[in-house]
Amino acid sequence: MGSSIVENTTDVYLQYQSQEDDTFHFVCDLRYIPEKYLRKPYPNSDGDDIWADPEFPYPPIDIFPQGTTWVRSKDLIETPVLFQNPLPFVTVFRGYFDTSNFLVTFLTVMENDLLFSKVFKSPCISEENKKIDGVFHFRFWYFGQWVDIYIDDLIPVQEGCLMMTSHPTSFFKNDIGITMAEKAYAKFIGGYRNMEEKDFDDFFHGLTGGYAVEYKFKFPVHGTQVFRKIRDALDSGAYIFCSVKSMKSYFFGFGENKDYSIIGTLEITTYLNEDVCLIKLRNIWSDFEWTGPWSHGSSEWAKCPFDVYERNVTQSNEKCFFYMDVNDFLEYFEGFTIGSVIPDFKFNGPSNMDYHVSIYGEWRGHTAASFTNHLNNPKIQFTVSKEENFAKHLFDVGIILTQKIVNKEKPYGIHCSLLKVVDTSTDGTYIVKYIGQKMEYYAQEQVAIRQSLSHGLYIIVPSTEKNGQERQFLLRVFSEEALHDIGSLPESRRLVLCGEEGLYQEDI
């Protein structure tokens, strides 16, 4: 893949590289000193010893209570296995640390076989294949790369009891896959305590490389509006996560700070002559279950056609999911987070953005120009070709801007602007206008936009909120068709604004 782009080339799209998942990727590095990620080698043990990770757990060990010991899985579990049980039916007891957000995100997202194969790189251990060398290999997404994480199978124990996430039944109890995933991610971000500080969007980002948006309910809010938003998001292939925070949730079988994921919807229009919009939620917890209206065995189901009840309740594992009326959902949940592997905020159905561009850049020196000198920031150009796609007038393009966060640095306020070249003057100056967003900065690791674009030349301007905020960034562009003329706009190219258009921002 290319490390630099020549201005005004017309065949850049030919440099897209075909991937195993039938997508096409193009990568370039425009940083002052380009970097290359080196894969970590598989750790080897000395002699016949089982490998012990010298790097994890990180100090201070005193985050664990006094008397904690670390034991090998085979010394704790008679026949340990790894991811031998179907993830859609897994339920867990939470361990010593509050990794609830991670557990729900992991168990929901990893049902996707393609994503699971990207994250988990060791062979699945079964009872027939009992060989454990003490090394487990995971990969998590960070700044454009799937980073190798190797851990051993030492597990923290307090008075003979497992301190980490565990399974409640004999059917699952030998499977240490979730415990190992929890440990691997803790190593990835610097410790178990750090996992407690992360939200759904952070874990979704690390497990998929995608982008997640949190929606908070702003009352008054209409249940049908929320229901359609959820239904459209699920139809587009997105993932949805939600948390219970209210103490009153205990009355109906919810636990405070318990997390869930939304996995489906069911619309019934014949109940008591009113439309009833039901949301289907995934429940990974073994110690809490919804007992309100439309819960398992509730009287509401008895008044529905039998085939509806049979299809949606009795033919599935009851412990692993439940239904709620959308109005009850609004009462017990504060909002939800929608995650998509590509930036998708309109959720108009499945997206086929098979062309992916990754451009590494940096705010450095005079190009760390803030919003006050917005057009002095780095500028990336691309063309939506008319010749290739003459009959098609609009193309969906999604853009994710990611700033590189090292250790525990605070994220800068960042923004990603999209401009279209509408004319060129006689001296070569580009006349440009803003497309689809206003200047708002968000102090988060990623921001994203999605637009339908016509044919023409476009310029992306990533920026930080304040002058002199130097940092590396990754700009990813997802498109339905191959893009042309991808590269850095020369600093000598003069831009003149002809006006601005306002931002759409979806609120619930």
What report would you give on this structure?
The protein is α+β, with helices and mostly antiparallel strands and 508 residues long. The protein folds into 3 domains: 12-30 and 353-497, Sandwich (Jelly Rolls), CATH 2.60.120.380; 61-208, no CATH class; 214-340, Cysteine proteinases (Cathepsin B, Chain A, Alpha-Beta Complex), CATH 3.90.70. It contains 10 helices and 24 strands. Strands 15, 17, 18, 19, 21, 23 and 24 form a 7-stranded mixed beta sheet that branches. A 6-stranded mixed beta sheet has the order 1-2-14-22-16-20, with no helix packed on it. Helix 2 crosses helix 6. The longest helix is centred in the middle third of the chain and has 13 residues, at 177-189. It is globular.
Structural class based on helices, strands and sheet pairing? alpha+beta
Radius of gyration: 25 Å
CATH class of the largest domain: Mainly Beta
**Poorly predicted ranges:** 1-11, 500-508
Q: Characterize the largest beta sheet: strand count, sense, and whether it forms a barrel.
A: 7 strands, mixed
Annotated CATH topology of the largest domain: Jelly Rolls
Global geometry: globular
Tell me the domain tally.
3
Separation of the first and last Cα atoms: 42 Å
The DSSP helix count reads: 10
State the share of residues found in helices, binned by percent.
10-25%
How many beta-strand elements? 24
Beta-sheet strand percentage?
25-35%
- Average pLDDT confidence is 82
CATH architecture group name of the largest domain: Sandwich
